[in-house]
Amino acid sequence: MREIFFRGRCYDDGEWIFGSLLDDDIIVTKGSVDVDESYIGINGNWSSVLVETVGQYTGSMDKNEVKIFEGDIVADESGEIAPVVFEDGSFFADYEGYEPQFLGEWCEVVGNIFENKINS
Predict the structure, then answer these.
(1) What region does 110 belong to: left with phi over 0, alpha with psi -120 to 50, or beta?
(2) pTM (two decimals)
(3) Residue 78 and residue 96 in one domain
(4) What's the pLDDT at 40?
(5) Which of 28, 71, 92, 104 has its CA 20 to 30 A from that of 61?
């Protein structure tokens, strides 16, 4: 079974945090969540994150065994770069002018769209 978790930049200090996504802007990093019809309680650590920075783990690792997240920038063997996107139920590298490439050990994470710009 694929490991499902998210990352996002903490609202307070801008640091990346990793865990379970609760709502659009809360990541639970440790503990559990209790939910019923009228109550949501977090028993553990959580942080508010910047919504625009939230990305899901793709389930793939690059050639250096780095986990690949939605919003990462990957490079292929020739140095061409592309953002990692989620569309039509799949994660892939969105190389401009080419067919989407499914992720795997052929690529390398070289940054992310939140900290690095892609020139197109």
Answers:
(1) alpha
(2) 0.85
(3) yes
(4) 72
(5) 28
